[in-house]
Amino acid sequence: MKEKLQQIKEAALSELRAAECDTEALRVRYLGKKGELTAVLRGMGALTPEERPVVGQMANEVRAEIEAALTARVAEEKERALNDQLVREKLDVTMPGNATRMGHQHPLTRAQREMEEIFIGMGFEIAEGPEVEYDYYNFKALNIPENHPARDTQDTFYITDNVLLRSQTSPVQVRVMEKQSPPIRVISPGRVYRSDALDATHSPLFHQMEGLVVDKGITMSDLKGTLETFAKKMFGEETKIRFRPHHFPFTEPSAEVDVSCFVCGGKGCRVCKGEGWIEILGAGMVHPFVLENCGIDPEVYSGFAFGMGLERVTMTRYGIDDIRLFYENDERFLKQF
Ligand code: DAH
Predict the structure, then answer these.
(1) What is the pLDDT of residue 150?
(2) Cα(300) to centroid of ligand 1, in Å?
(3) pLDDT per residue over 237-247, tens digit each?
(4) Is the C-beta atom of 210 inside 6 A of ligand 1?
(5) Whether residue 303 has its Cβ less than 6 Å from ligand 1
(6) How is residue 158 annotated by DSSP?
(7) DSSP, residue by residue, 264-277
(8) How high is the mean pLDDT of the chain?
């Protein structure tokens, strides 16, 4: 029996030293109720009274040794598992991170926001209108007669006889005046379309920003003050503006407005093509016919309007010499803003 105990001990300890060992199965097999050690103890009845305590003590020692080895092995496995996990989940906080590539607003959007802020600061609100527009709003209500060259299919994308892609943001004036009664103070930025071939200064799609103010007693000097404030904020405090008489069917009188060249200050340079001035918009006093078309009494109210090309203002502001750069999505260009 002593030999049997010795065998059991050696077998168990050697299994516990092996690389692979199912500790729980081992515990059951050696120490469990139906285990080998228990079987030996059950057979103790066959021993002499002298042998019994000796074998009993030995059996206890063997059990204690196996238990100790087992506990040690379990602890060792736990530690190894923990170490493995620590290695696997190691986080090196000194490693360089994955930098997120940040984009930014398109230069046109940026210029538009800047312009909006300037006008909002003067009490304007933003109004929007559809890009697919009725002939009525784009032309007729704006006092543009049937035979006007702007109505030519050469210039305007027609969808049907009376539906078109708006060629200007001016129709928003009409839509606002139909819905709102004075005082009105709105700007309306947005896309416009003309069937022009794409070149350095033309694009079939471009952007305008319309402005409209209608109230009692609005005069040309209000228009001048508003545009001067805008020009100084947009192009710098030194900027001057200049009105040149012009014709637009929806304003009377009408003017084209230039700003003094912010590069040379008016002396003449490459940016202003030696002129000293850069044309940025059209403007005027809202034509009484237009007010009437929108249900506003021109005897009581007067107003001014203006419309400027967003690309033009942005190109002027940043010294960009080709309109196509805005639409090509070339990062080398876009990154500069
Ligand atoms: N709609 C004109 C254009 O596209 C620009 C313009 C001129 C708008 C005078 C106005 C204005 O509101 O009063 O050429």
Answers:
(1) 67
(2) 23
(3) 999 999 999 99
(4) yes
(5) no
(6) B
(7) TTTS--TTTTTSSE
(8) 91
